[in-house]
Amino acid sequence: MSESKPVISVVAGALMHADGSFMLGSRPAGKPYAGYWEFPGGKVEPGETPLAALVREFREEMGIEVSHATPWLTRTHHYEHASVHLRFFRIWAWQGTPQPHEGQSFAWQTPGHHSVTPMLPANDPVLRSLQLPDVLQISCVGECGRDHTLEVLAQRDNPGWVIVREPQKSREQLADFVAEVADIVHPKGGKLLVNTDPAWIKGWPVDGLHLSSQRLAALDERPPHLAWVGASAHSSAELARAAALGLDYALLGHVQPTASHPQQAALGWDGFARLLQDEIPLPVFAIGGLQAADLDTARQHGAHGIALMRGAWQ
């Protein structure tokens, strides 16, 4: 009987600039996969918390002091020599200038356009996650109005990512509205997803699909031929389902009471964070009763970002 591989607990961090660029580092000579590029970090020592290990590793590897970091993704990757349990953080503030204390190289990269190779295999899905925005905007024409929604989008230099969710519309009505949103969003570099039956969207000018929790439960595989697919989730089981299908993100909520769910028990931030305690390998957006000012709080509780419905169109 072959011996099982050891499981090594590791932290890794992405230094983040305000423009969305992030830092990668090359692995030093003498280590497995020497010369491959990765997010800097290292092993968690006995008795250390993941955050303490992150701070220590960045001090030792590049001589900076991490002052603001938030938990992000958790993944397990199986290499030939060991299985690595990776906790990823994003680092928003630090003191000092990164210096290669271990003979490595550093490179700032743009999401979706990394220029260094080869990449450590565990990092491919993480790099993709960095293409996601801080905020997802969800339409609610029934409350905010069609004209107001389109006017708000038209006034924004960067319309960001929009999820069209209009369950009251017929297929034809939804197709017309999606086309109107696409005409505004796409020329400005934004992305458009739609929350609807996957069978409806063939030929529509969309960048992806958002699944309700009911549609998520009914699927056996990720819908094919779509660049981006996400889903709504309300439990750890639904988050695990989204991860198992290889989806790109999940919305988790509701965090606070909302106008449409005033009587239902909200998760609160502590409940939201508890649902992310298990290994969640995909980015999760907090949703439900939130405003743009809640972004950093969401990140501190493990979210990639926030999703806004009514708050997106004020």
UniProtKB/TrEMBL annotation:
InterPro entries membership: Aldolase_TIM, MutT-like, Nudix_hydrolase, NUDIX_hydrolase-like_dom_sf, NUDIX_hydrolase_CS, NUDIX_hydrolase_dom, ThiamineP_synth_sf, ThiamineP_synth_TenI
Keyword set, alphabetical order: DNA damage, DNA repair, DNA replication, Elongation factor, Hydrolase, Magnesium, Metal-binding, Mutator protein, Protein biosynthesis
Gene3D superfamilies named among the record's database cross-references: Aldolase class I, Nucleoside Triphosphate Pyrophosphohydrolase
Molecular function GO labels: hydrolase activity; translation elongation factor activity
Reactions catalysed: 8-oxo-GTP + H2O = 8-oxo-GMP + diphosphate + H(+); 8-oxo-dGTP + H2O = 8-oxo-dGMP + diphosphate + H(+)
Annotated PROSITE patterns: NUDIX, NUDIX_BOX
Annotated EC: 3.6.1.55
UniProt domain Nudix hydrolase: residue ranges: 6-133
Names of required cofactors: Mg(2+)
Pfam family, one: TMP-TENI
Transmembrane intervals: none
SUPFAM superfamilies with a match to the protein in the record: Nudix, Thiamin phosphate synthase
Record-stated family: Belongs to the Nudix hydrolase family.
Matches recorded under NCBIfam families: PRK08999.1 (NF006530)
Protein name per its UniProtKB record: 8-oxo-dGTP diphosphatase
